[in-house]
Amino acid sequence: MSDSVVTEAFEIVRQCRLILAGRSSGAQSAALADLLAMWLAGHSASSGDPAASDAVRENLLAAHVDLVRRLIPPNVARIHGRPRA
């Protein structure tokens, strides 16, 4: 990712933290799931083929889940003060 994308992402995360802080984990989960679903729904294959668009979304979701998994250890360290595993 480019430095400008990372900088922009950090600002979005900062704003979202303010919105999510103090809310129940269920409300946070539902909000994040809906945002992810909207993001995925916005992607489609250039051909417009529904099956190809579904495949594009599945690939994006798999890549996104991989990214989330890689971000868990540094966030555990930041939130809980534990060293990365």
End-to-end separation: 24 Å
- Tell me the strand percentage band: under 5%
Q: Give me the oligomer status.
A: single chain
What level of helicity do the residues show? over 70%
> What is the count of β-strands?
0
Coarse morphology: globular
Mean pLDDT, nearest integer?
94
Total number of domains: 1
- Class computed from helices, strands and strand pairing: mainly alpha
Radius of gyration over alpha carbons? 16 Å
Order of helices and strands: HHH
Main sheet properties: none
- Count of helix runs: 3
Q: Which residue ranges are poorly predicted, with pLDDT under 50 across at least 5 consecutive positions?
A: none
Description:
The model has no long low-confidence stretch (mean pLDDT 94). It is built from three helices and no strands. The chain is globular and about 45 Å long. It has one domain (24-85). The two termini are 24 Å apart. It has helices at 3-20, 25-41, 50-80. The protein is mostly helical and 85 residues long.
